[in-house]
Amino acid sequence: MGIKRTWYIDDRVDKVLHKIKAEKNLKTMNEVFEYILFDEEFLESEDYDFKKKMNIMDKNLCIVLEMLTMQLDTQGLVPNFSYTENLSTSYNAAKQLVENAIEEQAKNKREEKFFD
Q: Which helix (H) or strand (E) holds 50?
């Protein structure tokens, strides 16, 4: 049989988690996550700039959720979740970010064609 998994992110993250598990002689992944989230030694270590990485992850998750919400809306489905309390404010902010990125990309293409 194989290893029973109740979680999986990707190979890179899996290797880091298993490295921490082996280094600290932890028995389960729950212990690894508990160590990462709550142990002062880990939070203060320079090898793992945990707070910075968590902030980046939080921002990325927020963007993913809002983009998913926007895609649901374009398909005529009703989005039923949002990172923030107010779906319309959050949705509009995400939509504005996407529209700005599209406009910027179109502008860059026009400038590129102009200078060619």
A: helix 50-74
pLDDT digits (tens, 9 = 90+) for 64-112: 777 777 777 777 766 655 555 555 566 667 777 778 888 888 888 888 8
Q: What is the DSSP string of the chain?
A: -----S----HHHHHHHHHHHHHTT-SSHHHHHHHHHH-HHHHH-SS--HHHHHHHHHHHHHHHHHHHHHHHHHTT------SSS-HHHHHHHHHHHHHHHHHHHHHHHHHHHHH-
Q: CA dihedral in degrees (81, 82, 88, 93; nearest 10)?
A: -150
Predicted TM-score (pTM) above 0.85: no
**pLDDT digits over 23-43, tens only?**
889 888 888 888 877 777 776
